[in-house]
Amino acid sequence: MFQTLLQVALGGALGSAARFLVNVGAGRLLGFGFPWGTIIVNVLGSFVMGMLMVLLLERGARTVPFFMTGILGGFTTFSAFSLDAVTLFQRGTAGLAGAYVAGSVLVALAALVAGMMLARSFA
Questions:
Q1: In the chain, where are the structural domains located?
Q2: What is the pTM of this model?
Q3: What percentage of the chain's residues is helix, strand, coil (to nearest 5)?
Q4: Are 74 and 15 in contact (CB under 8 A)?
Q5: R_g of the chain, CA atoms, integer Å
Q6: Read out DSSP for 86-115?
Q7: What are 46-72's pLDDT values in tens digits?
Q8: DSSP secondary structure code for residue 35 in this structure
Q9: CA-to-CA distance for 43 and 14, rounded, in angstroms?
Q10: How far apart are CA 46 and CA 40, in angstroms?
Q11: 83, pLDDT greater than 90
């Protein structure tokens, strides 16, 4: 149990740091008026989660806690997504908030399926 907890903790630290870097980079490149970093992280994280689901979880790999719970758990927190959506709504941009929510969910689901399909093509 302790080894698994250590895997999750180390992975979470790496995932959180990566999330921070994506948010800063997206803000600098695309501006801070829209939560570009969060949507990039959620879509990319969903894609990678789909791949890892096939490559690790379905094969019973022992590194699942490190990669899926740790790294991706630290990288793709949807709590930030929720905060960004509410913030957009509270700014009086309900249409933009709705587009952000719908776009994030639909594209992330599509990315997860694409990741699974790509991973299965390797087998």
A1: 2-122
A2: 0.79
A3: 85, 0, 15
A4: yes
A5: 16
A6: HHHHHTT-HHHHHHHHHHHHHHHHHHHHHH
A7: 999 989 989 988 888 899 899 988 999
A8: -
A9: 18
A10: 10
A11: no
123 pLDDT more than 90: no
Sign for the pseudo-dihedral over CA of 74, 11, 41, 68: negative
Give the dihedral of Cα atoms 102, 103, 105, 108; nearest 10 deg. 170
Q: Are 3 and 21 in contact (CB under 8 A)?
A: no
Residue 123: Cβ-neighbour burial (10 angstroms; 0-12, 13-18, 19+): exposed
Q: Treating both helix axes as pointing N-terminal to C-terminal, what angle do 94-122 and 78-90 enclose, rounded to 10 degrees?
A: 160
pLDDT (0 to 100) of residue 39: 93
Of 42, 39, 44, 50, the closest CA to residue 112 belongs to 50
Give Cα 82 distance to the centre of its chain: 13
Q: Which two three-digit tokens encode residue 55? A: 């490559």
Q: Do 24 and 36 touch, CB atoms closer than 8 A? A: no
